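Lecture 7 notes. Example A: sequence first, then its structure tokens.
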Amino acid sequence: MAVLVNILGEAVKCGKVKSTGVFYELLKIMEDLLLRPPSQRTHPSRKLILLNLPTGYGKTRLSVVMGKATFEGFTDSFLRVIHVIPTRNLADDILRHAKAFDLEASAQYMFANPSLKTPYFLSPFVVTTLDSYSFNFLKIPVAEVKYVISRGLGHAEIPRHAIYTALNFIDEYHTFIFSEFSDTRSKGLEVLGLATTFLYFIIRHLITNSITDVVLSTATPILTPEVISEVTGISTNQIIQVSYDLSSKVGVNTYGNRIVINDSEFNNDRLNKHITTRILRMSLDDIAKKCVEVLESGNKCLIVLNTVNRVINAYNSICKLISCGEGVVTIHSRFRIKERSELINKIKTIDRKGKGIVVASPAIEVGIDFDADVLISDAAPIPSLVQRSGRLLRRIDGRPRSGVYIIVYDESLYDDRGKTYTGIYPASITSRSIDAINKVISNDVVIDWKLIFKGRVGNRISYISLIDPVISANFITKNLVNVRYLNFLTSVMSLLTTPKDVSKVKSILSSFIRYYPIVPLFIPDESIDYEGLGKVIDSYAENYISYLLPIELSDYMIYLISDILIKKPNTDEVAILVEDHEGSLSFTTVSRNELIKTFIEGYIVRGGKSFFPIAIICNNTYYNPNLGLNLSHKLING
């Protein structure tokens, strides 16, 4: 049986994709690991696969090919593939891959195309975010959140059945930990612990109950079989590690529970990409000047800065030096859905033309395809720096190319208490990341940001050698796993626990992977006031989703947006967009102090009738289609 090989071969034959000979070998191994009945497998006790492959080698393709095999009915081992992603930014790339294989993919995440949605995860190939996955996993079906919350009703076992009978493919798992939305300003590492703990919970529950297979995929491996075993109690014999290693024998080689890949065709391209790494202290004006130099030399420059404020200020600095037309684009998390789609298309145009500047927040780390000649990045934890490097000399085209990776490190960007760097990332992890990189480049050793290998190859070391000094196994188990939360999640899975019980928990936590809810702002094109809200909502009813902008609704964020909230005259009541059980839009008001609680609880009663909060209604005072929502005037300490 060579099902996966045949599926890929057909796509290659039609000219839709390209592949190497070694990748076909890998597909044969994956078929043995996943498609065959357990009694016929080389590793019959295996339930978890750690897939550690470099950017561009085909992690997404493996998932899609598995999905195609399921769609065509070539396996009885699972009924579907559920591809779990850290952010919706990654979805378009996966859906494009699926299209290349004529695979009918479905999607379930905030703002997904309604025609693709599969809220119960019943399609053969499902792309979903960890948020949606966590709700379906924990008995609050995303299709029925409003009914579970308001009435305690819901078909919880349908999506759970879908998960239990699926190959659960959890992609780029490290970014669950270092999310752009993590509010480390007040809680630090505790925030990171929720997502990491939930990840361990998924693994432990699915595997210890012998339910289904799980694949954890990443280009930045921070988990090992030993670490997973220590936290979850799973035997290392149940874990297979599939890793890339340039220093190993060419081909696909099996060593017990380790499968090692070395693909000379892939290496030939990656070794022709030469990246010089520098750590510099640069102002935003310095960054702007450097990028303009790159642009004037006919190349592409990507700037990735940790905060929206720094992104906007850098963009403005560039626009003082040159005319910012189609060749200069900024993108970050505070754009409406409408503009975000347009900006992504502009980025694609710059990429295709081979000349331009993109200024971005960490939103570009996953899912946005861009091939820069020069990358300038704020200092960040090593997994984020690795992810950003994937946008530097990205194309696998066989051409020798040289690029520069400038990491901007400024000690003045630590907060006053020394807990965070740029108000986003934990200070300790960031400083250790910079120290690890400095130690290498100060000895004239080259960091290979593209290939994975152990030790040194010539004067190169792989980026994975930087991970353990920064995020060791001991660090993960002591700082990023909340044992009490892990045990609590396990108790939720009791057969006696109802959706209504879980919804009460949700009302306390806001979500199962973060401390604050993700809440859209509704920002129309025109300036609005309280008296005219009814007419505005009626005029946008058919297309209001395009005018939504998701934020993490913390107390600090409420302070930032306080100037643009629509308030009921002479009160502290704030206008919010709501929906009734029939799907009709209207608005109501809640106290500013009750905003977070209202969106966490998920429903509100007015006149004896239940309504579901959709978005906070805001004025467009600080919104610019080219810059997004600019709240810099309210920032504390930048």
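Example B, a different protein, same format:
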Amino acid sequence: MQFSKAFLLLYYVLGVIFCNASSDGNLKMVYLKEDVPSPKNYSIFVTTASYSIDYIIENEKNIFENAFGKSINTRPGSKYWVRYSLPIPKHTSIVVEYDNVLNIEMYYQDEGGNYKKLKTSKPSNFFSERDIFSNKHAFTLPHISDSLKVIGKITSEMSVGLGSLLNTTQNYSKKIGINFLFIGIYFGMVLLVMFIAMLFYALLYQKIYLWYSLYLISLSLFAASYWGILYPLLGIDKIKYIHLFFPYSCITLSILMYTKYFLETKTKFPFFDVVIWISFACKILVVALYLIFELDFLYEQSIDLILLTPTLIVSIESVKKGFKPAGIFLISMSMIYVNFFLHSQEHTTLINSLMPASLRHMMSLWGFYFFIFSALEILFFNLALVQRFIILKMEKEYEHKQTLSFQTQALEKERENVDLKEQLNQNLTVLVAQRTEQLETANRQLIIQQEEIYRINELLKSDNQKLSIDIEKLTQARLLRKNLSFDEFQSTFPDESTCLTFIADLKWKNGFGCQKCGYKKFYLLTDKYQSRKCKSCGYKESSTLHTILSNVKFDLRKALYLSYLIYHDPLTNIAKLSTDLGLSTATCYEFTDKIKAVIEEKVPKNNHSDWTFLFELKLNVESEKK
């Protein structure tokens, strides 16, 4: 794995440096069949101006340069005028053929020395307006004299070679027949495989078949463009790189995703899964840059080859791990690399020296190398997909058999468990009967003990009631003592909450009654004054409101203590008491006067002997203000 990562990194670096180092694709100006005579005086005139044929004829001696044996590529915006003389034997028709992405006007010199227009061939009229049914630019040269002089005007929106092929009509007709036969076989095979792939996708709903179908569609569009079939169907005359670049880019993208799902890189090869996503994003970026800036060098197939490198390496790693379909998949990827190599090197000295001339012409001009290796790609990709499907199916069948075996074992185990359970149930029934008898005996003893406990609890309850009464009497006795100090008083009322509870219990000991509507039911609020809210009118009343402690601004414990002392000893020294309680003399006098007034008003009538009655009294508003 570490070697593969290092190799991948090195390949990317070299690819960035040499991505534009492929062959320029130039073609020699003329390719000949063995029975076709060699043209003479092959010359060319390159210009960016739009000259007429009359201007070219008048100045042909000055503007044409010898071009025989040279390799020339077209450039967008330039016009290429070619001129040559061709000896044509009697009873022989010669066909001249050019690449399918060119726009060509052909003129020939008649017996009177005048130039006549032969044909205007555009990509959009491959199948019409011509005397030869072909997917290439093909012209039949008339036999006028032993040496026919020809002038042609060639333009192209792409950089392609100006090579042409001269052939006899009879041989060319055979060639075209074979050409269309192979094209028909190719597209028939693609459509059949695509139908099978879409059928598998509809049945299994797996993304791998969808990406494989997209690969086949993209490959078909590229082949239709490469062989010149797509342009007449769409009526395209100005062919640009985008017509080949877009389907070729879709081929690269679909192969990347097809590899991802075929080899399950997300789970088996996480590193290469990330690399494939990076390659996918880079190709999307390349497409975007091409569409925005129209940079023709981005069409270089070496870029796609670099981006497809992770698929080749991960397939090798998958083969190492023993995934059988990866072997055929690796062969398919190898076909892509071989196809690219032949396409980029088809006009180099190496290939030309290894191939016979006739085979070299067929491979380079007819594009049969693309047909062969594309067909092999599809064949091996399809075989890999079928093998993967068969292996996965066998694995599922094996898992199904294993599941059935486990289920059978589980059923047998369950039967044994049922028998064992019945035996255990019988044993448990005997044990339960014995245990039930023991429990009934113990239960009878528990009932006897419970009755004894109940009797003891009743005695304890009676003792507790007596103890509570004694404690209450003791507390009241302490409060009735006339010489109770403030510290002792605080032991009974340690905080204001205790004081408020004490006051509320005295104030509402006979039940709550709303001061506004008289309603008896209330909500107990959670404020610090332990207020109650009427459920009928919503009136709120605190525990101190309408009592002797209403509007008291100092500590309630001190207020209670003052009430306690003044009730028991009206002649208490107020000045000393204010010092002991930490209150101002004025405050103490004001509050003691309020207490004395209430005592004078209420005590003779009610004749209470307990100071707590002061908090049961409900004062009117005037008394509260005092």
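Note on Example B: Confidence is low (pLDDT under 50) at residues 2-32, 346-355, 359-366, 621-625. The chain is about 60% helix and 10% strand.
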